Amino acid sequence: MGEMQGGRWRELTELVNEVLEVPPAQRSGFLDRLCDDDEVLRAELEALLVAEEEAGDFLLSPIFSLHDDGPSVDEVGRRIGAYRLLRPLGRGGMGTVWLATRDDGVFDQEVAIKILKRGMDTDEIVRRFEAERQILASLVHPGIASLLDGGTTDDGLPYFVMEHVDGRPIDVYCAEQGLGVHQRLELVLEVCEAVAAAHRSLVVHRDLKPANILVDREGHLKLLDFGIAKVLGPDDGPQVTQTRRLAPLTPHYASPEQLEGGGITTATDVYALGVLLYELLTGRRPFEFDAASPEAAAEVVRSRQPTRPSTAVVRVSQRSALTEGDEEAPRGTSPPGAPRQLRKALAGDIDTLVLTAMRKEPERRFPSVDQFAEDIR
């Protein structure tokens, strides 16, 4: 592709990262909408996507490894502050996360280090990254991954150091352990305790989903990734703040007000907890739509009512022939048991509390995460 100006590279890498968030089967249509009639842009993006696929697992080969300024697997062994990088763990919208070890001779400790991506270091992104670091510094709770350290790399990129959580996403953990309804409810109660602690510090997470909730081998749960969290401001009152339209979000777990660019409140997290509980109890999400289109997602969530969990779990059981690699197959599973038994276990109170948490209007949901947890108990 030859030499490329920094601004153009940043634009392309941000767009490629958006495309990588879309399931492979839907990427062609997404590129059609994204590029419209711009054939040059389409060709550049497709070339980068091919290079990314050839590089292997994108979690181990971040897109920025295609640019000589970006973090890559070649940085294994690099010293950052008191720590030495061991291997990449993954990447988010703003940063690459590494497994690292303390390397100053004081004591041994494995940690996770999140480093802002080269090419994403615009003023706005740096402010957001530093805001996440400050939010984590204000949150102290056994169910929230702790901030340990922070600073700036030798080449000027901000980073922060967190405790390393060696765990599985909550939905995968439930499936692997074959947890029943009662055990899954107990895990969600732990999530509620962590989220409620964040709310008491006036922090709304805004991105509660299985990938951000890890459970280790001992069954201990940790809430991660406050990258798009929002601190409630004093001018907004104790419950509400505003977010600009098209703010970062995960469509399948986003509340109607998030998808429509409305006001963000603690009820936003209540909605996401309802979606999480729905998925853990049924093995499916309440709504399915093209995640590449925020408009389509907003229309579905706004206009449709979710199927009751007790009914949805029976429908999932009828899809048992789907393989793990099938685009339609849920990553997790419903609790073990005959469909009739599960339907009986979920019908009534559990149906009601899940659907109450997911009401379209924020004011009609549970008034707090604590109240949602109390109803679960």
Structure description:
This protein has 377 residues and is an alpha+beta fold. It is built from 13 helices and 13 strands. A six-stranded antiparallel beta sheet has the order 1-2-3-4-6-5, covered by helices on one side. β2 and β3 form a beta hairpin. The longest helix is centred in the middle third of the chain and has 20 residues. The N terminus is likely disordered.
Question: Which secondary structure elements does this structure contain, and how are they paired or packed?
Answer:
Blueprint: H1 6-20, H2 27-35, H3 39-55, E1 79-80, E2 83-91, E3 95-102, E4 110-116, H4 123-138, E5 147-152, E6 158-163, E7 167-169, H5 170-177, H6 181-200, E8 203-204, E9 213-216, E10 221-223, E11 230-231, E12 240-242, H7 256-259, E13 263-265, H8 266-282, H9 294-303, H10 309-317, H11 339-346, H12 349-357, H13 369-376
Antiparallel strand pairs: 1-2, 2-3, 3-4, 4-6, 5-6, 7-9, 8-11, 9-10, 12-13
Total number of strands: 13
Helical amount among residues, as a percent range? 25-40%
Output mean pLDDT. Answer: 78
- The SS-based structural class is alpha+beta
Any idea what the radius of gyration is? 21 Å
Question: Can you give me a brief rundown of this structure?
Answer:
The protein is an alpha+beta fold.
Key structural traits:
377 residues; alpha+beta; 6-stranded antiparallel sheet; 3-stranded antiparallel sheet; 13 helices; 13 strands; globular
